[in-house]
Amino acid sequence: MSNQTSNTTLTDLSFFNWVGQFTADFLLIANLLMTPMGLVANTLSIFVFLGKRFESNFIRNYYITIAIYDNLTAIIAFIYLFPFGFRLDLQIMSVVSCRLIAYYIRIIPQMSAWVNVMLTIDMLSTVKRVKRNGLLQNTKTFIIAMILLLVLFHLVDAPNLWLRLENVESGNTTRVICTGDPFIVLFRDLISQVFRVYMPYITVFFLNLWLIKILTQSKRKVLNNTSRKDWSFAFSIMSMNVFYCINSAPLSVIIILTQINANDSYYRSYITIFSLFATYLNMFNHYFTIFINLKFNKIFRLEFKDLMRKWLRLKAKQRIRFAEDNSLSYSNSIKPFDQSIKL
C-alpha cells in the first residue's frame, strides 16, 4: 500500500514538474517571438496611419492611440511574463511591484479596448451622418476623452492597490505570493473582465449590428473620396471587433474556471496550460491587428505598399552608396606605379 502511495506521489510530482517546465519554456519562447513582432507590427501601423492618405482623416488618431496602447500592453506583458521563463516572479520582489504590475497589466489593455469602442461609436456617427465629422473628431475633445478614460480605469482597478505579499505553506515548502483578501481578489477579477471584455465587446457587438444595417440598407452611392474612406474604415472596424471578440472569449472562460475547484492541484495544472494558450490568443488583439487593416482597409493597404516601396528604395540607395564608398576606398588604397624606377 505504501509503495502504491509512493508511486502515485512520484507520478504526481513528475506531472507537476512537467507542467512547471512547460509553462516556463512556453513563456520564454512566446515572449521572445511574439513581443518583438507585435512591437514592430504596431509601430509599422503608426507610420502607415501617419501617411499622406490619412492626413485629412481625424479617425486615424484612434488607430494610432490603439497601436500605442497595444505596444504598452506588449511591453508590460513582457515585463510580467518573460521572467516566468526563468522561474522568476517579479510581482513577489516587493509590495510595490506586486501592486503596480497587477494594476497596470489591467489598465493598459482596458484602455486599448475602450479606445476601440470610441472608434466604433465615432465611425458609426460618421457613416450615419449624425455629425459629419464624427462625435469626437476634435483634437481638444479627443484628448479630454482619453484623459477621462485613463482616470476612470485608474479608479476602476484601484482594488489592485490593496494587494499584499503572503507566505503560503505547501507541503514542506513555503512560497511567497501576491494576493489580497478573497473578496478584493474576486472583485478585482470581476471588474477587470467586465470592463476589459464583456462591456466593450457587447457594446461593439451591437454597434457592429447597427453599422451592418446602415451599410447594407443604404442606397447612397459612394462617389467622393471622403465617403470611400469612411466605408473602408467602417468595414475594417467591424472586422477588427469580430477578431477581438473571438480572441478574448477563451481567456474570459478560463478566468471563470480558475475559481472552480481551485484547491485541486491537477485541475490547477490543466487550467494553467489552457490559460497559456488563451492568454496569447488574447494577445493577438494587441500584436497583429495590422493584418486586419491590411485585409479589410483598402486605404491602409495602399499606404502600407507606398511605405514599403519607400523603404526598399531607401535600402537600395544605401546599398549603392555603400558600394560606391567601398569602391572609392579600394581605389585610394592602390599605390600608383612609379614611372621613375630604372632597371
TrEMBL record:
GO terms for cellular component: membrane. InterPro entries: GPCR_Rhodpsn_7TM. It comes from the Eukaryota. The chain crosses the membrane at residues 26-50, 62-81, 101-121, 142-162, 195-212, 233-257, 269-292. Residues 41-293 form the G-protein coupled receptors family 1 profile domain. Its main location: membrane. It is found in: Membrane. Keywords: Membrane, Transmembrane, Transmembrane helix. The keyword Transmembrane helix applies. This is G-protein coupled receptors family 1 profile domain-containing protein. It comes from Brachionus calyciflorus.
